[in-house]
Specification:
Layout: H1 2-20, H2 23-28, H3 34-70, H4 75-100, H5 109-116, H6 124-140, H7 148-165, H8 170-189, H9 192-203, H10 210-232, H11 251-280, H12 285-288, H13 290-304, H14 313-321, H15 326-345, H16 353-374, H17 383-390, H18 392-398, H19 401-412, H20 418-434, H21 440-455
Length: about 450
């Protein structure tokens, strides 16, 4: 009996010694495992599905523009068709979402984060098809929604699917879902490094083996980007001017811009939550036909003034290419701000990253043209301020400044603007924090958990 107790005591002592060994030493002795192979498969599949989603949305919007041009001599018919097509697309999207997969509403990022935290399940069998087709319909209707939300949730679902197929452990599933989510962001913006940092900075999953798990996330993002570039080419998502390094004595302008965008970020989160609450309180016909009338609004606006609709890619290029006055840009910013609240607040399947990038760019460019008139020597190229401000709203609302900085650099190819981007994004993030704002995805996750508990 004493020998047995001594053996148990020795085993306990050995376990205690193992617990004292730093994680880095344990991981240094580990061999490569099959999760890396699964992660590469997740990346390839996410890259293919996500890029197909992106190309299909572009094709739908292009065909709608072609139809509008063909019917320009028949304005009444043109307006009727635009309103009807967008309204029907919105209605069908909401029906699919509510009938088959309510957890595909919004960007889907809080749902992925909830799975990684162990508070939500992830049913890829219904999430994958519904998010893909409902996302096509909402983005194709002209709503102000980003493709990154669908591709992130699709990527996470692909990770869960691959893990289930290969009968991975619970930890393997978490790693693959995180890898798929990062690959989804990388696919949406052709930005692999941003996908990796997004998982680390925003999702912050706590893995049993952090280094090997990070390798899986990295590999998935790389494979997704390779697949994307094979399908659409290697050019940045935003094909705009590559700017030189701004003068050091002009950096205070970027700091002031960051403060302004930080205030906007605080207001953005505040009004977005109010919009979500308003739409979630709807009952009866106003609830049943949400997609119909929201879609119809954007069908009408797409003919009245196209830059006020869509995810934001076209609006950003339009703002850079046209010599538009600062007043007009600020007006477009205000309109898109309100319409973004309606689009995302309605609960439509779609992301919020791209709309925020567009909002920040338009506001920054409008501000830059005003600054240029006051300080022409300090800011010889006013559009450089727009690139610096592009990711600042993401930094302020999501509270993920590194993701915002790297995403902006990879999207635009402006690698020389790291310092101005750091200043603008950090000032925006700190200003929003000082005002009392909370990270938007954390608030949305908390809201989703509360909704789930109320339903029980």
């Amino acid at each position: 009996m004493n020998n047995s107790q001594d053996k148990d005591r020795d085993d306990q002592d050995n376990n205690n010694k193992l617990n004292l060994i730093p994680q880095r030493f344990i991981e240094a002795t580990q061999k490569l495992n099959t999760v890396l192979l699964y992660a590469s498969l997740v990346g390839i599949m996410t890259g293919f599905v996500g890029t197909s989603f992106r190309l299909t949305v572009t094709a739908i919007l292009h065909q709608r523009q072609v139809l509008a041009v063909l019917l320009q001599n028949y304005p009444i018919l043109n307006y009727i068709l635009a309103i009807a097509i967008s309204g029907i697309m919105g209605y069908v999207a909401f029906w699919l979402m509510r009938r088959f997969a309510p957890d595909t509403g919004g960007s889907g990022i809080p749902q992925i984060e909830g799975f990684l935290d162990g508070v939500f399940s992830l049913h890829w069998q219904r999430v994958l098809p519904v998010k893909f087709f409902a996302g096509l319909l909402t983005l194709g209707s002209g709503m102000i929604l980003g493709r990154e939300g669908p591709t992130i949730q699709i990527g996470g679902s692909v990770g869960k699917m691959v893990g289930d197929c290969f009968r991975g452990t619970k930890e393997d599933l978490r790693v693959l879902v995180a890898a798929g989510a990062g690959a989804g962001l990388a696919t949406a913006f052709n930005a692999p490094f941003a996908g990796i940092i997004f998982v680390i900075e925003e999702m912050r999953p706590e893995f049993q083996h952090p280094i090997s798990s990070l390798r899986s996330v990295t590999l998935a993002c790389v494979m997704a980007t390779l697949t994307t570039r094979l399908m659409v080419g290697q050019q940045p998502v935003m094909d705009i001017t590559r700017f030189d390094i701004p003068q050091l004595d002009s950096l205070w302008i970027f700091a002031i811009l960051g403060i302004f965008i930080g205030i906007i970020g605080y207001l953005f989160n505040l009004f977005l939550l109010r919009a979500l609450n308003i739409f979630s309180s709807l009952r009866g016909l106003s609830y049943q036909f949400t997609g119909l009338y929201v879609g119809a609004i954007f069908g009408l606006l797409s003919l009245i003034y196209y830059p006020t609709t869509g995810g934001g890619d076209y609006t950003i290029i339009w703002a850079f290419d046209q010599q538009i006055s600062g007043d007009v840009l600020i007006l477009v910013f205000c309109i898109r701000f309100i319409l973004t609240m309606i689009s995302y607040g309605s609960g439509a399947p779609g992301g919020i990253f791209a709309p925020m990038l567009a909002l920040a760019t338009i506001f920054s460019l409008g501000t830059a043209r005003e600054f240029h008139s006051w300080f022409p020597q300090l800011l010889p190229e006013p559009a450089v301020l727009a690139v610096a401000g592009m990711g600042a709203l993401v930094a302020a609302t999501v509270r993920a400044p590194l993701t915002a900085i790297i995403l902006t650099v990879e999207m635009t190819g402006n690698y020389l603007l790291i310092l101005p981007l750091l200043i603008t994004c950090l000032m925006a993030s700190m200003t929003a924090h000082k005002l009392g704002g909370k990270p938007i995805y954390s608030v949305l996750l908390e809201r989703a958990i509360q909704k789930k508990s109320n339903q029980k």
